[in-house]
Write the structure tokens for this entry.
Amino acid sequence: MGNFREKLARFMYGRYGADQLYYCLLILNFVLMLINSFLRLAILDITVWAILILMIYRTFSRNIYKRQLENQKFLKVWYPIKSKFSLFFVRVKEIRTNRYRRCTHCKSMLRLPRRTGKHAVTCPRCHKDFDVRVLL
């Protein structure tokens, strides 16, 4: 078994390997395969195979610079989406203790303690004062 690992490591030397785009394509591939198992559409079958070929091509590619550029473009699109969802889940998790409001001047998100009523708040980013009303 150790000999196989050495050969695989020698083969993968200088190749790009897996990154965030690879893992996203992997999850997308599994989701499409799951949907295709129920619907049996030829276009989904072709899409699954195309994604699989793209994943293998990117993994074994020796052009590391281009693969890094592809990953950077993907991350530029992915991080804003991810941050919105992660903020949503944090808000749901902390709904009993905190409320989230945006600053009226700099639009940054503020986490406030859950106290009902009207409160004067100072933004830690732009240091402007504004009033916030917490209902629940």
User: Anything to note?
Assistant: DSSP finds four helices and four strands in the chain. The first helix runs from residue 2 to 12. The CA atoms of residues 98 and 113 lie 5 Å apart. The chain has two domains: 2-93, 99-136.
